[in-house]
Amino acid sequence: xxxxxxxxxxxxxxxxxxxxxxxxxxLCPIIAASNDxxxxxxxxxxxxxxxxxLTMNVALGIFGTDEAGxxxxxxxxxxxxxxxxxxxxxTFVALVCGATMVGAAALGWLVELATPLFGGVLxxxxxxxxxxxxxxxxxxxxxxxLALGMPMLxxxxxxxxxxxxxxxxxxxxxxxxxxxxxxxxxxxxxxEGFASSFSSPWPVLLVGSVAVALLYxxxxxxSERLYASxxx
Length: 232
What we know:
The chain is mainly alpha-helical. The chain has helices at 2-34, 42-68, 71-75, 82-117, 128-156, 158-171, 178-196, 202-228. It has one domain (2-228).
């Protein structure tokens, strides 16, 4: 299985830096806007967006490379089991998400340090622990979303499943509608009230980590069954 993980790394490393640079370019105006007299925190904003954008791009990229180069057919001719094939991909995606969480936390910390150096004033400064928690929390959300989406990729392939996989991001445009925005604010206020009932957010993150881990394992087993029934 380690050879399969290494093969994914060889494929992903060529695009990893490119995705990271593109993410940073996109983040720059968003980070500036989050500190422009609003209640946003630039360091937290940079951390959350970087985790999501980079992890999602790398995950979809390696699935796309499978189809483009017929690597998925070649891989199944190797002396490996279907379980090892799927487990290696799931392990690699989890490792990418973990590494991105570390990098995103460092990026958020640098944004908090750099903003005053360039003459800016942080409207909502955040400390290192808050940035780490933001990275951890968004990493869990991203990994949970991938756990829900990867079975579709294994059953339909990335070309057919891409639209369904990215539809929730497209639906975010509905936030511009006032009824949707008001409903979302109600949900967010409820979640904020629930989180504030704890003296520390760490228990929430720990419980969330266990829940996402269980969801990820369940997704892995579902992907195995769907991949086995797919005609390649």
